[in-house]
Amino acid sequence: MGMRLFTADAMRRADRRAVALGYPSLLLMEAAGRAVARAVREHFPDARAVWVVAGKGNNGGDGFVAARWLFLWGYRVAVYAPDGQAGDAAQARKALEAHGVAVRPLEALDLEGAEVVVDALVGTGLSRPLAGVYAEVAARVNASGLPVVAVDLPSGVPFTPHVRADVTVALAGLKREHLFYPARAACGRIVLDGIGMPEAALEAPELPELLTPEAMRALLPERPGNAHKGSVGRVLVAGGYATYTGAPALAALGAYRAGAGLVTLAYPEGVPLEPLLEVVRLPLAAWRAEALRAARAEAVAVGMGAGPGGPEAARAALELGLPAVLDADALVPEVVAACRGRPVVITPHPGEAARLLERRAQEIAAHPLEAARALAERYGVTVVLKGGPTVLAEGAHLAVNTTGSAAMATGGMGDVLSGVIAALLAAGLRPWDAARLGVYWHGLAGDRVGRVGLLAHEVAEALPQAREALISDAVRPFWV
Ligand SMILES: NC(=O)C1=CN([C@@H]2O[C@H](COP(=O)(O)OP(=O)(O)OC[C@H]3O[C@@H](n4cnc5c(N)ncnc54)[C@H](O)[C@@H]3O)[C@@H](O)[C@H]2O)[C@@H](O)CC1
Ligand SMILES: Nc1ncnc2c1ncn2[C@@H]1O[C@H](COP(=O)(O)OP(=O)(O)O)[C@@H](O)[C@H]1O
Ligand SMILES: [K+]
Fold first, then answer.
1. Ligand 2 centre from 307 Cα, in Å?
2. Distance (Å, rounded) from C-alpha 364 to C-alpha 151?
């Protein structure tokens, strides 16, 4: 079963399914609280005094369980919460109080002596921005400078104000706030704990897929011992214009580093392309399909650095009838509209997506899942909406990438990605598989170099070792 990205509602449904399967919810709460206590111990090994702030719901219940275990392990604990818990949370509170640990009102919060704070005010049950004593507690915890371990989510996200955590223990599954900004920035390091939730309860194919090392490894094309350059995928890159001489070269490099057997670069005659020894050059007087056929490619990447010639280059390339990646200057509505139902992957960033959807780029960046879905519906192609994180859509399917970082926000990075996806298409992968693996692998290569100052060609150069790491099971997702 693929891993899914949950919403609060979807997690509540999973919760109910677990209970319907006969799994007692109190067991989930016990596992959740214990996971939080363990996270405190592991991430702050020198701390001996832990203060817990808890709310009225199950998030608070998890906090009471964490407090009980920390107390039993010999920590000094102080617990602050309002009255009025019900159900499991009330039980968890009683179990804590049975050990003689008093629960004091939130208004009495005194952080003097605390070494770590556990934030269990509110989790997925948040229904409105924090206000009143909750907002005050969040502000005081933030101002204290103490390390914070958040239960499930930093209380208050995605609204402001919210708690800023150093570690967030995601319970049972990752939620949107763990992946998307600005909420993600409040989570600090994210660790996922399964809390014993039965797999069957978590099955939710309608939710976005989270790209995992296991799932992506399974998609990597094999390289048979008797491979030759004509058998593992020939890629045509079509782009380049006056000053954009690096973009198509980076796509070509990305394709080769992702395993293409042969890469041909078609570009307007007279454009001084960056030298790449291994690339076959195809200078053209005009963008014509007949001329592009000479490459005998199995997939094409078009648009990178093509400037005003982008649409023309794309029309010629699409006439080949090959699986295609459309990027940058090829991403105009008239061109993409002609691709419905064809094996075409488009790779817009929010600015290009705005052009295709006639919306504002900020709106797209704020709701990337909805935008990717809208693009897939409107144009009937496979969509890679680039960003932090990149999201993908095809038909009713959605996926969210889990690799890459802000270090990748530099020029030419998207060109390399186009080349990677084209190489995977040429190797025979379906567009959805090529797009998901391409995006994941590209981000993984970035992570392995991983510092600000990263250049696009360095990401291309890191693709082979990222592949090796993926194959040899040496890749851990960010939530482990
Ligand atoms: N998903 C799961 O399967 C499990 C979830 N558990 C925990 O349960 C949490 C969800 O529990 P609940 O649904 O009870 O919800 P929460 O405990 O997250 O929040 C609901 C409570 O917060 C109050 N509240 C909502 N917005 C508020 C605001 N702005 N200011 C002040 N109070 C506010 C509500 O009135 C209610 O009392 C998860 O985040 C997780 O910590 C665990 O107990 C174990 C299992
Ligand atoms: N903050 C970020 N987190 C993760 N990945 C990022 C981030 N910023 C950029 N990237 C990745 O870098 C690439 C940038 O592509 P793009 O904007 O098209 O750049 P260019 O047009 O210069 O090639 C995309 O793959 C994108 O997902
Ligand atoms: K919380």
1. 19
2. 30
d(CA 473, CA 345): 28
Q: Are 425 and 325 in contact (CB under 8 A)?
A: yes
Average pLDDT over residues 108-124: 98
Which atom of ligand 1 is nearest the CA belonging to 14?
Answer: 3
Average pLDDT over all residues of the chain = 97
Question: Over the stretch 360-382, which tens digit does the pLDDT of each residue have?
Answer: 999 999 999 999 999 999 999 99
Separation in Å, CA 41 to CA 63, 73, 111, 114, 234 = 15, 10, 19, 14, 52
* Number of the ligand 2 atom closest to the C-alpha atom of 410: 22
ipTM of the complex: 0.93
C-alpha dist (Å) from residue 290 to 239, 307, 343: 16, 21, 20
**Closest ligand to Cα 123:** 1
Ligand 2 neighbours, Cβ below 6 Å, are: 349, 386-390, 404-406, 408-409, 411-415, 417, 442
Verify cis geometry, omega within 30 degrees of 0, for the bond prior to 268. no
Pocket test for ligand 2, best of 355, 390, 391, 447 (most atoms within 8 A of CB): 390
- Tell me the domain boundaries of the chain: 3-206, 213-471
Whether 228 is in the pocket of ligand 1, judged by its Cβ within 6 Å, is no
Structure tokens at 3: 């891993």
- For residue 222, the 8-state DSSP code is P
Ligand 1, atom nearest to 11 Cα:
1
pLDDT of residue 336: 98
**What kind of architecture, by CATH, is found in domain 213-471?**
3-Layer(aba) Sandwich (3.40)
Name the residue of 19, 30, 127 whose CB sits within 8 Å of the most ligand 1 atoms, as the mutation to test its pocket. 127
Task: Kindly indicate the confidence band of residue 273, based on its pLDDT and cuts at 50, 70 and 90.
Answer: confident
Q: Which pTM value belongs to this model?
A: 0.96
Roughly how many angstroms between the first and final C-alpha of the chain, as a whole number? 18
Asked whether 12 and 200 are in contact (CB, 8 A), the reply is no
Considering the domain delimited by 3-206, tell me its CATH architecture. Answer: 3-Layer(aba) Sandwich (3.40)
Q: Decide: 265 and 306 in contact? Cβ < 8 Å.
A: no
Cα of 145 to ligand 3 centre, how many Å?
Answer: 17
Ligand nearest to the CA of 126: 1
Residue 243 has pLDDT above 90, yes or no: no
Q: Cβ neighbours of residue 431 under 8 Å, at least 6 residues apart?
A: 323, 343, 344, 345, 381, 382, 394, 425
